[in-house]
Design brief:
Cobalt-precorrin-4 Transmethylase, domain 1, disordered C terminus, binds S-adenosyl-L-homocysteine
């Protein structure tokens, strides 16, 4: 009987290979075929053996990302040929990763499929930048939204940001000006603190802090590049507080 193929939808985390799950690392080390996005850090791809076939479906200057249907067809074709296909995605496959579409395509084709979670950018970047997304004193709600141009105006974010809440915006750098405008139109204070985390949890990480009204300026002035997250809420301003406390404590020790 022909060997049964399978599709693994695997989260690659934000970049540092140490943030992979043990299961993801094991699958990569034993992979025969890996289909990955551009967002997957090259450091993670070094775990794939040389004997494996590495297929990128990333954007390049010469061509756009493969259309999703073509990616689905590619995964299914290899699985039907009896291969175990590792579909490797930045962060977590089910957070703005189109993992749901690939899962449905595999099911429709009656191909066994399994999902391995990854650390999503919000969690990886928050840990690296030491921003607690929830905090008993500052936030008991956290929301993840997609800020790309398509459909931004139609999205209802009312109530997701504000006092006691944290809003994490993926894919929002290019639309930072519309995002700030949208949130202020929803009643968010122009002086709500925020942080932009560029290349979160990678060696090149930058954490930029500012206020909502100044977001477009901050992004332009600092020439923020993708991938970056915008985190909006009081939790982003707490380490200034912490620093003040530490300074005050040090001062009180001296006196
Ligand atoms: N599935 C991914 C998200 C894909 S959408 C995940 O779970 O993380 C792509 C967006 O994710 C980027 O535009 C950016 O907003 C965010 N992103 C991904 N990796 C990032 C990183 N290392 N630092 C900051 N943002 C990142």
């Amino acid at each position: 009987m022909a060997r049964q193929g399978k599709i693994w939808l695997v989260g690659a985390g934000p970049g540092d290979p140490e943030l992979l799950t043990l299961r993801a690392a094991r699958l990569l080390a034993g992979a025969e075929i890996v289909v990955h996005d551009g967002l997957v850090d090259p450091a993670v791809l070094t775990l794939v053996p040389r004997s494996a076939r590495l297929i990128s479906v990333a954007k390049s200057r010469a061509r756009q990302t493969l259309p999703q249907e073509d990616i689905n067809a590619l995964l299914i074709r290899h699985a039907r040929a009896g291969r175990e296909v590792v579909r490797l995605k930045g962060g977590d496959p089910f957070i703005f990763g189109r993992g749901g579409e690939e899962l449905e395509a595999a099911r429709a084709a009656r191909i066994p499929v399994e999902v391995v979670p990854g650390i999503t950018a919000a969690n990886g970047a928050a840990a690296a930048a030491q921003i607690a997304l929830t905090h008993r004193d500052a936030s008991s709600i956290v929301s993840f939204v997609a800020g790309q141009c398509k459909g931004l105006a139609e999205q209802d974010w009312a109530g997701l940001a504000g006092k006691g809440r944290t809003l994490v915006i993926y894919m929002g750098v290019a639309t930072a000006a519309q995002i700030a405008e949208k949130l202020m139109a929803d009643g968010l204070a122009p002086d709500m603190p925020l942080a932009v985390v560029e290349n979160g949890a990678r060696a090149t990480m930058r954490v930029l802090r500012g206020l909502l009204a100044g977001l477009p300026d901050l992004v332009a002035r600092e020439a923020v590049v993708s991938p970056a997250l915008i985190v909006i809420g009081e939790v982003t301003a707490r380490d200034d507080l912490a620093i003040t406390h530490i300074v005050a404590e040090a001062a009180s020790c001296v006196s």
